[in-house]
């Protein structure tokens, strides 16, 4: 029923339009992006440390850098302009 209603209401929009719009909203300003995506990273590093030791935890740091670069690539691909806090554009 929901898919039919969405298809009749907006036939040209893709199926995942709302999820894409939400993701673009999150990726807009830096503070919102890292406020949502940042908190899971430290517990993940601690979990790796508890499971495998410090050697593996050190190797997760490049994963954080790759995560940051992936956000940049996703913004570029989707055409999301980064908005700075307190700056009108």
Overview of this protein structure:
The protein has helices spanning 2-9, 17-27, 30-37, 41-52, 54-59, 61-78. By secondary structure, the chain is mainly alpha-helical. The longest helix is centred in the last third of the chain and has 18 residues, at 61-78. The radius of gyration is 18 Å and the shape is elongated.
Q: What is the distance, rounded to the nearest whole angstrom, between the alpha carbons of the first and last residues? A: 40 Å
Q: What summary fits the major beta sheet?
A: none
Q: What is the alpha-carbon Rg in Å?
A: 18 Å
Beta content: under 5%
Number of DSSP-assigned strands? 0
Q: Helix count?
A: 6
**How would you describe the shape?**
elongated
- Please provide the ordered H/E string of secondary-structure elements: HHHHHH
Helix content estimate: over 70%
Low-pLDDT residue intervals, each spanning 5 or more residues: none
Overall pLDDT score: 82
Structural class: mainly alpha
């Amino acid at each position: 029923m929901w898919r039919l209603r969405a298809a009749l209401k907006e036939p040209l929009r893709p199926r995942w339009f709302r999820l894409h719009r939400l993701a673009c909203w999150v990726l807009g300003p830096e503070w919102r992006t890292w406020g949502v995506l940042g908190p899971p990273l430290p517990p993940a590093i601690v979990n790796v440390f508890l499971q495998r030791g410090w050697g593996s935890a050190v190797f997760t740091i490049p994963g954080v850098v790759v995560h940051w670069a992936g956000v940049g690539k996703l913004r570029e691909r989707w055409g999301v302009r980064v908005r700075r806090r307190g700056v009108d554009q």
